[in-house]
Amino acid sequence: MDIEQALQALTPDVYEKLKLAVEIGKWSDGRKLSAAQRATCLQAVIAYDSKHKPEAERVGFIAPRKHQHCGSSKGEIVAADDSSQRDKPLKWQH
Known about the structure:
single chain; 4 helices; elongated
């Protein structure tokens, strides 16, 4: 069985069990996962997520944050396409 076939056979129930095993480092019967088992389970969880869940619901998702651009005097967020801020000189602090 190759990885694609294994992922096709992965049910939501098995996915949840693998995810829990990775989180706590143990199988549901209490046996400890080896490092190789944990890595394999994590790969399966990530692959399952990428096929079945929207990006924001996947394991490990970190929402992007807006960047505060240099030169902003009040800490406001300036859009990259805001031409009034485009030519503003940088403020260097010592």
